[in-house]
Design brief:
The complex is a heterodimer of chains A (about 280) and B (about 350).
Chain A (H helix, E strand, L loop, with lengths): L2 E11 L2 E11 L4 E5 L6 H8 L7 E6 L2 E2 L5 H7 E4 L11 H6 L14 H13 L15 H14 L4 E5 L7 H16 L3 E6 L2 H7 L2 E6 L2 E6 L1 H4 L2 H8 L3 E6 L8 E6 H4 L2 E4 L2 E4 L1
Chain B lengths: L1 H16 L1 H21 L7 H12 L8 H35 L12 H15 L3 H23 L7 H25 L5 H10 L7 H20 L1 H7 L3 H6 L4 H23 L5 H13 L3 H26 L6 H19 L6
Helix pairs in contact in B: 2-4, 2-14, 4-9, 4-12, 4-13, 4-14, 5-6, 5-7, 5-8, 5-12, 6-7, 6-12, 9-12, 13-14
The chains are: A alpha/beta (about 280), B mainly alpha (about 350).
Chain lengths: ~280, ~350
């Protein structure tokens, strides 16, 4: 499903506009990565796209259909949202958490059927944590929880998937596990919009990158062209070096972003930073 | 100490594992406590006579007992047992629903001020007229008014935030409690004050079928709605944003749950007076037995709530020659039990 955003504005209070004139397109099967410093409006943008916040101005189009004309339940069948933080109060079992993804497909007075259980179990298998099915969600590790929430959004069977910093708080292995799943979903035809704090993830996995500063995109497009040292400096306000590393597994070189400070030869010696 | 808790937790785990056993117990508990509640009372009647009289009312055969005995069973004990079951179920169910909705295991059915409002309504009616019909209607009405005020107060912004709603509920509850004190202060200390005080402590001793017929619908209809919509409570307990992202009209769903709980609690309070602790403790007992999934927890809460109040109301009649106020006994049993649960940390939430 094609996602188009035209001239989107949003503010929590009238004084301060958080999103200013946001426009972009994402095609079916694309992974659109939103980069930008803390507080630049990434989460707000995803919440607007997810129908959680109502934009003040502008339009969101799903395959050309204006989002505000779609009912909440219908919208949730098309657009899935994985929040950055999820607070569960009650110690539900993992399978019960995943089952909640079926909510938009169920009427107000229905409970999940056998079919819904099968879809939820299939979603758990898809992300590789079927064995955690009966464990209480609150007892799982951070990486496992993130996988549960992704399984939940898969059970929702949306066509557009929004992920808010899905890899933060995770170790390198779990980061890769999540990104592998996201890539697979995009290959299956899902449209993906994700925010991230890792420019190298944007360079590695995305088909399109947007760099957001102060509620505005300063550049959108092909990752290779958009992610430059100048733009990263503008976004994060520190000097960043993009290095090209030979990929041991293939021909394509890998680009990595490193703060210049880390390259300047300073090392932690005896508890204090010093030049080597 | 730790080992003793561990043993208890193991036992609980064991019980939880045997689902059919738990289910059977949850079905049998209210039925058995209902029968028990028909048997006890100051007027001694043998179980055989009680059941024969009851059966003779349903099946077409004649059973000869003194008129007085029949009145005690049919006009006094039967409505009282039905009332205890309805009130217990209503308070427990609204407690469970509110804990899910507010995502807070420490709220109870009274969080939005419904009980204080109803208590004020009853006290006002007792002060001004004393007619039991007016007292009931006034209690029911003011219970709903209190929640409506809480809700209106929290709606100052574009949408209701749960935190503002809870705070508004506390404010409204405090206001109506103060008004109750005011009424007690101005009430005639010989005629009016005792009846107001006694009403506020809660009792089922004066329940008749007439009161039940009025309150039957505001308890049973919301109860059915909540049972049918119970799975949605799971989704709602994820919090506003996640529930929205899962396609739920959070605002409307909240309105529905709050309306149902308010109707049930207002009706329960207008039948039985202030009966505390049921709406707080029963949901936790339910979670201990069947887990947090509302699909199972909601029916379990109804069964446990009904059984609990039936048993406490029977104890009210057994423990002493005078009738102890119901609200006092539910608190005397409920508060230490809840403290015990807290110590044991089986009251699970994160």
């Amino acid at each position: 499903m094609r996602l188009e955003v035209r001239g989107l504005h949003f503010s929590y209070t009238p004084e301060r506009e958080v999103l200013k004139d946001i426009s972009f397109d994402v095609e079916r099967g694309d992974i659109f990565c939103v980069l930008g410093p803390n507080g630049c409006g990434k989460t707000t943008l995803l919440k607007c796209l997810g129908g959680i916040l109502k934009p003040n101005k502008g339009s969101i189009l799903l395959d050309g259909v204006e989002a505000s004309t779609i009912s909440r339940a219908e919208y949730a069948k098309l657009v899935g949202y994985v929040p950055q933080e999820h607070g569960l109060v009650f110690p539900y079992k993992t399978i019960d958490v995943v089952l909640m993804g079926r909510a938009p497909h169920l009427g107000i007075f229905s409970t999940p059927s056998e079919k819904d259980y099968r879809i939820a179990e299939e979603a758990l298998r898809e992300v590789g944590i079927y064995h955690l099915k009966d464990r209480p969600y609150v007892e799982l590790s951070g990486g496992e929880r993130q996988l549960v929430i992704i399984a939940r959004v898969l059970a929702q069977q949306p066509e557009i998937l929004l992920l808010d910093e899905p890899t933060s708080h995770l170790d390198i292995k779990n980061q890769m596990a999540i990104l592998r799943i996201v890539t697979k979903l995009a290959e299956q035809g899902m449209t993906i919009v994700m925010s991230t704090h890792f420019p190298r993830h944007a360079l590695l996995f995305s088909s399109k990158v947007g760099i957001m500063v102060g509620g505005r995109f300063i550049a959108i497009g092909n990752p290779e062209e958009v992610v430059t040292e100048e733009r990263l400096k503008k976004a994060y306000d520190i000097d960043i070096k993009i290095l090209t590393v030979k990929n041991p597994l293939g021909d394509r070189a890998i680009k990595v972003c490193i703060p210049v400070e880390a390259l300047s030869g300073r090392q932690l010696v005896g508890g204090a930073w010093s030049r080597v | 100490m730790v080992s003793r808790y561990q043993v208890l937790e193991d036992i609980l785990e064991e019980i939880r594992g045997r689902k059919s056993l738990v289910a059977t117990a949850l079905i049998l508990a209210p039925i058995l406590s209902f029968l028990l509640s028909l048997l006890v009372g100051r007027y001694q009647i043998s179980p055989q006579i009680v059941f024969s009289v009851l059966i003779s009312k349903i099946l077409p055969f004649h059973y000869d007992v003194p008129k007085q005995v029949e009145i005690v069973i049919i006009q006094v004990r039967l409505p009282r047992a039905i009332a205890a079951a309805l009130v217990g179920a209503a308070l427990a169910l609204s407690g469970t629903s509110f804990q899910g909705l507010f995502r807070n295991p420490l709220v109870s059915s009274q969080i939005l001020g419904v009980a204080s409002g109803a208590g004020f309504g009853a006290a006002l009616a007792l002060l001004l007229s004393g007619d039991p019909v007016i007292v009931q209607v006034s209690a029911f009405g003011f219970g709903i008014v209190a929640v409506a005020i809480s809700y209106a107060l929290s709606r100052t912004y574009r949408e209701t935030s749960l935190l503002t709603l809870v705070l508004a509920g506390i404010v409204v509850g405090a206001l109506f409690s103060a008004l109750i004190s005011l009424i007690k202060y101005v009430a005639d200390p010989y005629e009016k004050l005792p009846s107001i005080t006694f009403w506020l402590m809660g009792s089922l001793s004066a329940v008749s079928f007439r009161e039940l017929t009025w309150n039957f619908i505001p308890i049973v209809v919301p109860c059915i709605i909540l049972v049918l919509a119970r799975w949605r409570l799971n989704v709602l307990s994820l919090g506003e944003e996640e529930a929205k992202a899962l396609g739920i009209d959070v605002e409307r769903m909240r309105m529905l749950v709050i309306s149902c709980c308010t109707l049930m609690t207002a009706a329960a309070v207008s039948i039985a007076g202030m009966v505390g602790w049921v709406g707080l403790v029963i949901p936790h007992i339910g979670r201990m037995l069947v887990g947090p999934d509302h699909k199972v927890l909601v029916p379990a809460s109804i069964a446990i709530g009904a059984a609990y109040l039936l048993i406490v109301d029977s104890m009210v009649r057994i423990v002493s020659t005078f009738e102890m106020p119901l609200g006092v006994l539910t608190a005397i049993i409920g508060a230490p039990f809840f403290a015990y649960l807290l110590r044991k940390r089986t009251v699970s939430w994160r």
